[in-house]
Amino acid sequence: MVQSRDGTLWVAEPSLAAIAQIALSGKVTQHPLPRGNGFPPSPSDLVPSPDCGIWYAAGDQLGHLSRSGKFTWWGDGADVGNGPGAGPDVPGFPDALALGPDDTVWYEHSAAGDKVFSRVDLEQGPTRIVRLDTQFSVVAMTEGPDGAVWFTQRDEYDAKQREGIGRLTPDGTYRKWPLPADASPGDLVTGPDRALWFTDYGSISRFGTDGDLTRYPVRNATYLSHLAVGTDKCLWFTADHRIGRLTPQGNMTLWAVPGAQDLGALVAVEDGSFWLADRKADVLRRFTPPQ
């Protein structure tokens, strides 16, 4: 779930192979994803586009959906899509989309056992940035405060420490900072203090661009899901049936959301409230934290 700059809310609907568009008026429009002869596309990562549409990843499909409902997409195999430069070798099961420093969308995928990072726009289509002679899973990416893209990575093949924070520059220079052995890095955002913040195993962690790591435990948390920067310049996150607020100085507050079962994505609204996706109840909730 993401919100474009015109206030439209976009929600991935994996079980329906569709993306829902919710206008400020409350009108809901469902957009079934284009599909070929293979498995139905299952949308996952959504990224707001500068044109008030969105970019999405859905299995082996990478695409753009305009606010008027037009799809531009690329796929693998025989389903090559309708985008510029569409071909049989792209996009390679894209994942972890993020708007990069060059206003194109960056994503990662695999090719013959190697990790590949690419970018895509509506004029040129997918373009490779770098291919790394290694294999790992990227959980989330974000544009950093330094003109590079940062990401959380797990399960690096044949590495002494398999989890870490990665950094990639526009020219393809990659660096990894290993995390402690008990780390489980997940969602990632750039904070108001120009540091990287991510969900960890039972905590919210702050990672400075100098490599300094600080962890803030979340009490009684089974699963920490998504992070967002609120209008108050603090970090907000979902934890099971609760929503949490963490100041850059480390002060944490948690609230139970009435009726919530298993909260996932959250979107900060200008009035200080939040849209919350409840995965178990299969509903969207609007929550305003107590003052």
Features of the shown structure:
four-stranded antiparallel β-sheet; mainly beta; N-terminal domain of TfIIb
Number of strands: 27
Order of helices and strands: EEEEEEEEEEEEEEEEEEEEEEEEEEE
Low-confidence stretches: none
**Major sheet details:** 4 strands, antiparallel
Mean pLDDT: 92
Rg over C-alpha atoms, rounded to the nearest angstrom: 19 Å
In the CATH scheme, what's the topology name of the domain at 224-291?
N-terminal domain of TfIIb
If helices are DSSP runs of H or I spanning 4 or more residues, what is the number of helices?
A: 0
Query: Helix/strand-derived class?
Result: mainly beta
- Give the C-level CATH assignment of the domain at 224-291: Mainly Beta
Give the N-terminus to C-terminus distance in angstroms. Answer: 25 Å
Explain what this protein looks like in three dimensions.
By secondary structure, this protein is mostly beta strands. It has a domain at 224-291: N-terminal domain of TfIIb (Single Sheet). It has no helices and 27 strands. The protein has strands at residues 2-3, 9-13, 18-22, 28-32, 43-48, 54-58, 61-65, 71-74, 95-99, 105-111, 114-121, 125-132, 137-143, 149-154, 164-168, 174-178, 188-190, 196-200, 203-207, 213-217, 224-229, 235-239, 242-246, 252-256, 263-268, 274-278, 283-287. The chain has a 4-stranded antiparallel β-sheet, with no helix packed on it. The chain starts with a strand and ends with a strand.
